[in-house]
Amino acid sequence: MVWIHPALQGLGLALSFYVLLLGWRRFGMVHLGRAGLTFAWKRHVSLGGLTIGIWLAGICLGLGVSWWTWKVVFITNGHYQVGLAMLPLMVFGLASGRVMDRRKARRRLLPLAHGLNNLVLVALALVQLATGIGVIRDMILP
Ligand code: HEM
Ligand code: HEM
C-alpha cells in the first residue's frame, strides 16, 4: 500500500519529461521562430492532462496512505508542503492548457505563462522525488 503513491507519482514524473519535450518544440516554433519543427498538439494535450491527473490523484493517495499508516496527515514536512504548493500550479496548468486547446489562436503570453508554470511543476516534482526518497528512508523502511 505505501508504494502505490511513490510508484504513481514517479510514473507521472517520467511522463512529464516527454510532455515537456513536446512543449519545448512548440516553444521553439512560437518564440524562437525555428523552422522545421512540429508540435504533436493532440498528444501533448492528452498526455499533459494524464500527467497532471496522475499527480492530482497521487496527492489524494499520498494523504490517504499517510492517514492509513500513521493515523495523521501533514507529517512529512517539506514533502507535503511542496506537494500542496503544487496544487494551484496544477490547476493553472490544466486550465490554461484547456483554454488554448479549445479556442486555438495566435498567442504569445498565455503559452509562455503555461510553459513556465509547467516547467516549475516538473522541477517541483523532481524535488518531491528527492524528499520522497527521504520519507521512504526515514519513515517507511525502519
Ligand atoms: C506536465 C504537463 C505540461 C507541460 C510540462 C506542458 C508544457 C508546455 C510548454 C513548454 C508549451 C510551450 C509554451 C510556449 O510556446 O511558450 C506548451 C504549449 C501548449 N500546451 Fe502544454 N504542458 C503541459 C500540460 C498541458 C495540458 C494538460 C494541456 C491541455 C489541457 C496543454 C495544452 C497546451 C497547448 C494547447 C499548447 C500550445 C499553445 C499555443 O502555442 O497556442 N498542456 N505546453
Ligand atoms: C508530484 C509529486 C508528488 C507529490 C505532489 C507528493 C505529495 C505527497 C503528499 C501530499 C503526501 C502526504 C504527506 C503527509 O501527509 O505528510 C505524500 C506522502 C508520501 N510521499 Fe509523496 N508526493 C510526490 C511524489 C513522491 C515520490 C516521487 C515519492 C517517492 C520516491 C514519494 C514518497 C512519499 C511517501 C513514502 C509518502 C508517505 C505515504 C505513502 O507511503 O504513500 N512522493 N506525498
Structural commentary:
The mean pLDDT is 97. The chain is built from four helices and no strands. The chain is elongated. It has one domain. It has 142 residues and is mainly alpha-helical. The chain has helices spanning 4-30, 41-70, 78-102, 109-140.
Radius of gyration: 17 Å
> Which range does the strand content fall in?
under 5%
Helix content: over 70%
Count of helix runs: 4
Biggest sheet descriptor: none
Mean pLDDT: 97
What is the number of strand segments? 0
**What ligand molecules are bound, each kind once?**
protoporphyrin IX containing FE
Low-confidence stretches: none
Q: What is the domain total for the residues?
A: 1
End-to-end Cα distance: 16 Å
Topology:
Layout: H1 4-30, H2 41-70, H3 78-102, H4 109-140
Helix pairs in contact: 1-2, 1-4, 2-3, 3-4
The site of one protoporphyrin IX containing FE has 29 residues, from helix 1, helix 2, helix 3 and helix 4.
Brief overview:
By secondary structure, the chain is mostly helical. 80% of the residues lie in helices and 0% in strands.
List keywords for this structure.
mainly alpha, binds protoporphyrin IX containing FE, single chain, 142 residues
